[in-house]
Every structure is written in C-alpha cells, then in structure tokens.
Amino acid sequence: MARIGLVAHDDKKDELVAWAHAHHDRLSAHELWGTGTTGSRVNAATGLQVRLLKSGPLGGDQQLGAMIAEGRLDVLIFFIDPLSAQPHDVDVKALTRLATLYDVFFACNKSTAEAVLAAL
Fold it and tell me: Is 16 in contact with 78 (CB distance < 8 Å)?
C-alpha cells in the first residue's frame, strides 16, 4: 500500500476528481491524503477515503511537503495549472522541490499520474 498525496490547482480540480473516479478501484487500495478542497472534492465525488489536510494556500501544501520530508508520503499527484498565476506560488515550488529532493513518485498531470499509478 502506497501513501498518496492528492492536490490540484483550482482550474485542475475537476480533472483530478475525474481521474480519481476513473481509478477508484486502484486508489482504494492505498492511503490517500489531500489538501482541504481537493481532498474533499475527491471524497465527495468518488467515496474514496481521503485524509484531509488544510487547504493548499492555508498550509496544506506545506503539510504535504513535511510528510514527504519525514518519509510519510510515497507519491505526490499534483495536477498543476501552468497557465494561471498562483498567489501561493512559493509554497507550490517548495512542494515540488521536496518531491524531487526526496525522490518520491511525482505526477504533475494526467499522463504522469497514469504512469505512476500503473507503476504501483
């Protein structure tokens, strides 16, 4: 069982929810963590048990980063919107830096999320 973090920028939340719905059976075998809004939406739409952290801009991104640094997260699925400025861009960069530094599976879009899930 992998410990998977789920997060998506606002314009990508619908896409992440649809991806999670399509992979419900595979994801249900893993421990899921999500930032507040993203995790709540995935849970409501799919029935998957997602442990909720704070909303991304309110510290949820940093909580996921801390989990990575402490070895408590194996995978980060983060659907990033590259076309919209993010007011908490510093937090986003820190989270992606930690995922890279600690060498966890890191998916930033649907294609990479498909590959990561297949590898699990």
Answer: no
